[in-house]
């Protein structure tokens, strides 16, 4: 694990605690949330905080410093299942990552229809 990954793990843990504080959860929850996914190679379940933008049943997650991160690669190609917390509820969906001509990476999550 690189130094960057170690620092990110500590920051992510701290964020998850702060995001559960009443009042702050309402403010933070409009731009940052937690996603949960299963690693393609490891089969382990991971939960990490991410910044997002939502439009209906589509959620776009921007990946800052994508070359220093690996989580988004789990959604390469045809993509993979993902769960995203929205308004305090875990919503299942399907995520697909893409890298544009500038090297920027995003993961588009299409939410499963609500029942």
Offer a concise description of the structure.
InterPro entries: Split_barrel_FMN-bd. Helices cover 18% and strands 43% of the residues.
Describe the structure.
By secondary structure, this protein is α+β, with helices and mostly antiparallel strands. Helices cover 18% and strands 43% of the residues. The protein has a 6-stranded antiparallel β-barrel with strand order 1-2-3-6-5-4. Strand 2 and strand 3 form a beta hairpin. The longest helix is centred in the N-terminal third of the chain and has 16 residues. This is Nitroreductase family deazaflavin-dependent oxidoreductase. It comes from Gordonia rubripertincta (Rhodococcus corallinus).
Low-confidence stretches: none
Radius of gyration from CA coordinates: 14 Å
Q: Count the beta strands.
A: 6
> Roughly what percent helix?
10-25%
Biggest sheet character:
6 strands, antiparallel, barrel
Q: By helix and strand content, what is the structural category? A: alpha+beta
Q: Give the assembly state of these chains.
A: single chain
Termini separation? 40 Å
Overall mean pLDDT: 87
Tell me the number of helical segments per DSSP (H or I, 4 or more residues long): 2
Report the β-strand fraction as a percent range: 35-45%
Q: Any idea what the shape is?
A: globular
Main-sheet strand order equals 1-2-3-6-5-4
> Could you give the order of the helices and strands?
HHEEEEEE
């Amino acid at each position: 694990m690189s130094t960057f990954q170690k620092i990110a793990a500590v920051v992510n843990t701290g964020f998850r605690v702060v995001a559960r504080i009443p009042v702050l959860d309402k403010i933070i929850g409009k731009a940052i949330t937690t996603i949960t996914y299963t690693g393609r190679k490891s089969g382990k379940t991971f939960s990490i905080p991410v910044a997002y933008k939502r439009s209906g049943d589509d959620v776009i997650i921007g990946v800052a410093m994508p070359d220093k991160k690996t989580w988004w690669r789990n959604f390469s190609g045809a993509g993979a299942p993902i769960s995203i917390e929205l308004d305090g509820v875990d919503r299942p969906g399907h995520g697909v990552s893409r890298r544009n001509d500038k090297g920027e990476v995003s993961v588009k999550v299409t939410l499963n229809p609500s029942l």
